[in-house]
Specification:
This protein has one helix at 84-97; strands at 15-18, 25-37, 43-54, 65-68, 75-78. The chain is mainly beta. It has one domain (15-97). A 5-stranded antiparallel β-sheet has the order 4-3-2-1-5, with no helix packed on it. Strand 1 and strand 2 (25-37) form a beta hairpin. It is globular, with a radius of gyration of 14 Å.
Length: 98
């Protein structure tokens, strides 16, 4: 029996929006399947689907990174680049963690 894929990941470089009205924010995804680590380098148990930075500002410092899950995405504005290598990476590495 084949493993049913119940989750997928958006490609790096994808621009998404969260929130509405004045609270709407656009983010560029730059990392996936991200854990949060404390100052000693230990993972604190939280893991998020994505790490992004606010568009159009980009990365300013560690405080500018936004960690979020797929459920928080309201709209995909622009899909990042994807090819066979990307598809295989998602299936073989990211989805194998779940």
């Amino acid at each position: 029996m084949s493993k049913e894929i119940t989750k997928s990941y958006l490609p790096l470089g994808t621009v998404v929006s969260m929130g509405t009205g004045e609270d709407k924010v656009k983010l560029v995804i730059y990392a996936r399947a991200q854990g949060i680590y404390d100052e000693t380098g230990e993972q604190d148990g939280n893991e998020f689907d994505y790490a992004g930075v606010i568009y159009p500002l980009g990365y300013l410092d560690e405080e500018s990174i936004v960690f979020f899950n797929s459920e928080a995405i309201d709209e995909v504005i622009h899909m990042g680049y994807s090819d066979d290598e990307e598809i295989n990476f998602v299936q073989d590495v990211l989805l194998s963690k779940d």
